[in-house]
Specification:
The chain starts with 5 loop residues before the first strand and ends with a helix. Helix 1 crosses helix 7, helix 2 packs parallel to helix 4 and helix 6 crosses helix 11. The chain contains 11 helices and 14 strands. The chain has a single domain, classed as Rossmann fold, CATH 3.40.50.720. It has a 6-stranded parallel sheet with strand order 4-3-5-6-7-11, with helices on both faces. Catalyzes the two-step NADP-dependent conversion of GDP-4-dehydro-6-deoxy-D-mannose to GDP-fucose, involving an epimerase and a reductase reaction.
């Protein structure tokens, strides 16, 4: 009998026949992770839609793990949105995310999953954290009020991973890690007019203004806050890289019991400048105006991704190229919606 084929990657031999569960496989990040896994030759990738599996239902999650028996888990499922959505639905953001994380992480442990990657968010760090924000800034100050419920849920997910490692790392070989991405954009994004993040919201707004021949486009806030952006397929590549790191090498570079690691592009841009880039990408020729009555959010959010760079990962797609790809994706989604109508 021939041995199962395996891939030596990032210091860790992975069995290409391992069953891998990607929670949130149809979302922007989850679908990018699936693309990366398939590109690297993995054949047994499992996913469930929300209609097929409600991750807030503990019994349903346990049944899924009992039946499918995944060997690795990428926890990319989450309720996400921009400032408007976080302000409008705070109860949903904290409840849904807490339940999904608790159910999936605990079920993974109960069913013997040793390797799990939890996806958090840069909003876990204090609103006025020193820039760039390093991993040890966690729990050192007050969170940004506009997304505090979501941030608290994500912090709980990080601490769950750390706690399961602490209690079961030696006895069960538990190795649960967390990645904290900066603002993501790219194929599969949500372009909802009010509940989306800044890049997809700007793409839609400028595109619609171009079609309507509008004289101006209004941007929320002053345009002065600075944000960091990362193309989603770069994020997915980072996820596989972190999962593939040898446990001993990973622990040698991180603090004891630390489960989270930052993933960012390493540079940020003012929202006003970003708007200019999106305007150019879309081909809109009108004015940009700022609604200063709307909230800005945190003044700056730049991740310190030095640790991940040290561990061998760097992004491949710059912002200008990423925006061009994102706009093409938006146009493709528009064509699909038009066909369905």
């Amino acid at each position: 009998m021939s041995a199962k084929p395996s891939l030596q990657w990032a210091n860790e031999p992975f069995d290409l026949d391992s069953k891998i569960y990607v929670a949130g496989h149809r979302g922007m990040v989850g679908s990018a992770i699936v693309r990366q896994l398939k590109a690297r030759g993995y054949r047994r990738i499992v996913g469930r839609t929300h209609a097929e599996l409600d991750l807030t239902n503990q019994a349903a999650v346990n049944r899924f793990f009992t039946i499918e028996k995944p060997e690795q888990v990428y926890l990319a499922a989450a309720k996400v949105g921009g400032i408007h959505a976080n302000n409008t639905y705070p109860a949903e953001f904290i409840y849904d995310n807490l339940m999904v994380q608790a159910n999936v992480i605990h079920a993974a442990h109960e069913h013997g999953v040793r390797k799990l990657l939890f996806l958090g968010s840069s909003c876990i760090y204090p609103r006025l954290a020193p820039q760039p924000m390093a991993e040890d800034a966690l729990l050192t100050g007050v969170l940004e009020p506009t997304n505090e419920p979501y941030a608290v849920a994500k912090i709980a997910g990080i601490k769950m991973c750390e706690s399961y490692n602490r209690q079961y790392g030696e006895s069960h070989g538990t190795d649960y890690r967390s990645v904290m991405p900066t603002n993501l954009y790219g194929p599969g994004d949500n372009y909802h007019p009010t509940n989306s993040h800044v890049v997809p919201a700007l793409i839609r707004r400028f595109h619609e203004a171009k079609l309507a021949g509008a004289a101006s486009v209004v941007i929320w806030g002053t345009g002065m806050p600075k944000r960091e952006f990362l193309y989603v397929d770069d994020m997915a590549a980072a996820c596989l890289h972190v999962m593939g790191l040898n446990k001993r090498d990973y622990q040698a570079q991180t603090k004891p019991q630390q489960a989270h690691i930052n993933v960012g592009s390493g540079c940020d841009i003012a929202i006003g400048e970003l708007a200019m880039l999106v305007k150019k990408t879309v081909g809109y020729e009108g004015r940009i105006e700022f609604d200063t009555d709307k909230p800005d959010g945190a003044p700056r959010k730049l991740m310190d991704s030095a640790l991940l760079r040290k561990l061998g990962w760097t992004p491949a797609v710059d912002l200008q190229r990423g925006l061009e790809i994102a706009y093409c994706d938006f146009m493709s989604q528009q064509q699909v919606e038009a066909t369905l109508d």
